[in-house]
Write a sequence for this structure.
């Protein structure tokens, strides 16, 4: 069975993730603070409306004439600000097929009392499970461990660890130890929130049966 090449997953900045399939399909998640303009995106998937996840300027940097945009249904109005040949809206529980991948939307929200106002469940923001090259890749968006995220089954998980707005390294490790992917890649640390040291703190607490891969480029 084919597996997604781990070298084809990049965490460019913060929560900006680039994945390329074996067939050459290029997907970006939450492009933000990009210094180059590759205009190579076939698809851009946005998890929620905060400026460091939905940045029309950065979508412009990766978009080309045929780029398609995927956003939570609750962001249908904001999506018009971004360059896209077509916009798909999704609600948690839905799935769509795009090129050589299947995209499932899963809920992303806070439950910890100190964070409830940042990503409330009623905003209907989402994370994504993308099945590509025979691999289920979970891009969590900004979330806490909650009853919905505990239902996720995936091969590779990209999980926020920076604290303040999302899980901190300890909470993120505890979450990963519940869902037990094959590989986990931490995101959302080292710039706006969290330090570079948080990645090692997280890695030290993850079950040894899960491979921790550090991918943040800057």
């Amino acid at each position: 069975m084919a597996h997604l090449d781990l070298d084809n997953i990049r965490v460019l900045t913060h929560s900006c993730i680039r994945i390329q399939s074996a067939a050459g399909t290029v997907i970006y998640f939450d492009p933000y603070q990009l210094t180059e303009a590759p205009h190579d995106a076939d698809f851009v998937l946005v998890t929620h409306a905060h400026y460091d996840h939905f940045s029309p300027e950065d979508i412009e940097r990766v978009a080309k004439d045929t780029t398609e945009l995927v956003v939570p249904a609750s962001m249908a109005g904001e999506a018009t600000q971004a360059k896209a040949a077509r916009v798909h809206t999704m609600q948690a529980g839905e799935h769509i097929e795009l090129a050589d991948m299947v995209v499932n939307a899963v809920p992303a929200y806070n439950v910890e009392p100190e964070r409830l106002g940042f990503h409330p469940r009623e905003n209907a923001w989402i994370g994504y499970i993308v099945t590509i090259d025979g691999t289920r890749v979970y891009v969590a968006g900004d979330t806490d461990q909650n009853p919905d995220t505990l239902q996720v089954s995936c091969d590779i998980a990209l999980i926020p660890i920076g604290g303040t707005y999302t899980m901190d390294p300890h909470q993120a490790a505890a979450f990963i130890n519940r869902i037990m992917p094959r590989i986990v890649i931490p995101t959302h640390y080292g710039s706006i929130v969290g330090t570079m040291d948080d990645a090692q703190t997280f890695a030290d607490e993850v079950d040894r049966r899960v491979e921790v891969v550090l991918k943040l480029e800057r």
Observations:
- Residues 1 and 134 are 7 Å apart (CA to CA).
- The mean pLDDT is 94.
- Helices lie at 56-62, 169-179, 197-205.
